[in-house]
Write a structure and sequence with these properties.
about 500 residues, alpha+beta, 13 helices
């Protein structure tokens, strides 16, 4: 009898342990390389912001899906006028922000007017440039009138910079973000981790995770150790490229190598001598061996690019031959520019592996043609302030992970490249006004060629998405059509 009771008790304990173990799998710890400067995607350019909040905490009228397609979000449907200038959005009902306030047409008007206001701190104000006016038709209907047709309008409304915020909480979103998404902000231990928790009253399909922790691990060796120890169960963009084969051989993990929208460039300050000279920019581009760079900094992961356009896009043109590796030509161009003896410059490098390792390789290659580039490592907040905001730099390396962002070279607000080409700006206007496939493709190809010839930056490679996570984790994105870690469909397999 005692044996029977003992066996029954043991079985009960085993069942209980199994149940507890399964219940614990509603939490997920993800590793991220960069800590965001704040958590308001409408007030900052850092990709690290969207990597936390996009689709999780904040939502827009539309959203970008895992295949790069435009999907409904807070707008359940929309119609477009025959002339392509008026969009009427029908909004979901019974939507609430995380603080309990109701969502409606007034919030959409507030958000879009705020983003395009002259005093706006939105890093992507160009997304809203086509908007003429935003009108409230009724509490759940908004009409947006454009100055001219825009083939990218619905796509633009799916960016993180276009999420809908509430007037009651908009100014507090940097530290305590309030959105309408399936997760709500929980806590932020600066320098360590950010925690989001399931929104119990979400208007749409509920999240499958109860909690997700984004742990900041900038060091590649530490990232490897954290994954192997199980302290982190997923690294959507793993920074230690050299250890990927180790994880590929380990059945406990799933390794997924995908694509991103991240054009990696050697940025040049086009209005600062000697980089205001086309021959100098061409010389620098010809001094760089893309294969050596990809092999040395990325362990062979990455696709060479000759312009600012993703190779997986159907309108891509391979223009790498325009600036092929040719040190002798580079020296000749420098001499023609009046720098036969070379010159000294600085190279500011943010923390990502591709920048720090790639910078050392590029500095060595520039030295071969007489350019002495002093490497200056900077933290991400310093890069955003010095390089991106104040244009205080000579050369820098960064990946631009925003989708469909060829137009950054046409900005009128002195984007950090300080590049100004009226012909290119006109091409971008034409692209934005056209939705026809063949015509749009031809314009895209022309724009790529202009940049390849004008070299406002040295175009290096397309950043891969190197995902590694526990083999039982499902729902993380293979590719990165937008800078996001969308957790809305992520779960643990039974």
């Amino acid at each position: 009898m005692k044996f029977w009771k003992l066996a029954l008790a043991s079985a009960a304990i085993a069942w209980l342990s199994s149940t507890v173990s399964l219940a614990a799998k509603t939490d997920l710890v993800l590793g991220i390389v960069l800590e965001p400067p704040h958590l308001d995607p409408t007030a900052g350019a850092a990709a690290a912001i969207d990597e936390i909040v996009y689709a999780n905490i904040f939502e827009g009228l539309t959203r970008i899906g895992p295949k790069g397609d435009v999907l409904p979000a807070l707008a359940e449907s929309w119609t477009k006028s025959d002339d392509g200038k008026v969009y009427t959005f029908k909004l979901h009902r019974d939507v609430k922000f995380h603080d309990g306030t109701s969502f409606g047409a007034d919030d959409v008007k507030f958000s879009l007017d705020r983003a395009r206001d002259g005093k706006s701190t939105n890093a992507q104000k160009g997304l809203f440039a086509a908007i003429d006016k935003v009108e409230i038709v009724d509490p759940l209907t908004v009409k947006v009138s454009l100055k001219q047709p825009s083939g990218d309008f619905l796509y633009n409304m799916g960016w993180g910079d276009a999420v809908i915020v509430a007037p009651e909480s908009a100014e507090l979103n940097k530290q305590t973000p309030i959105g309408t998404g399936p997760f709500r902000f929980d806590s932020w231990a600066k320098g360590s981790q950010i925690v989001i928790a399931k929104n119990p009253v979400y208007w749409g399909t509920p999240a499958l995770l109860d909690k997700a922790t984004f742990r900041v691990i900038p060091d590649p060796a530490a990232a490897t150790a954290a994954l192997l120890a199980g302290d982190v169960q997923a690294f959507p963009v793993f920074p230690s490229y050299e250890t990927i084969p180790q994880f590929q051989a380990d059945p406990r993990f799933k390794v997924v190598i995908g694509t991103t929208e991240g054009e990696t460039v050697l940025g040049m300050n086009n209005k600062k001598p000697p980089f205001d000279n086309l021959k100098v920019r061409q010389a620098i581009a010809h001094a760089i061996d893309r294969k050596t760079l990809i092999d040395g900094a990325m362990f062979g992961l990455g696709t060479p690019i000759g312009s600012f356009f993703p190779p997986h896009h159907p309108s891509h043109v391979d223009l790498t031959s325009e600036t092929n590796y040719d040190p002798q030509l580079a020296k000749k161009l420098l001499a023609e520019a009046g720098h036969a003896d070379g010159f000294k410059t600085t190279l500011k490098l943010p923390p990502p592996t591709y920048a720090r390792r790639g910078g050392e390789i590029i500095a060595a290659e520039l030295r071969e043609i007489g350019i002495e580039a002093e490497i200056i490592p900077v933290e991400w907040a310093q890069w955003l302030d010095q390089v991106f905001k104040n244009r205080d730099y000579d050369l820098t390396i960064v990946s631009h992970t925003e989708p469909n962002d060829l137009n950054i070279f046409a900005r009128d607000d002195d984007y950090y490249f300080n590049y100004d080409n009226l012909a290119f700006k006109e091409l971008i206007k034409q692209i934005d006004a056209v939705s026809d496939g063949p015509k749009r493709t031809e314009l895209y190809k022309q724009a790529q060629k202009v940049l390849a010839n004008d070299v406002p930056a040295a175009f290096l490679f397309q950043l891969p998405k190197t995902g590694i996570w526990d083999a039982k984790v499902e729902g993380l994105w293979e590719n990165g059509p937008i800078q996001a870690n969308d957790l809305t469909a992520v779960k643990w397999a039974n």
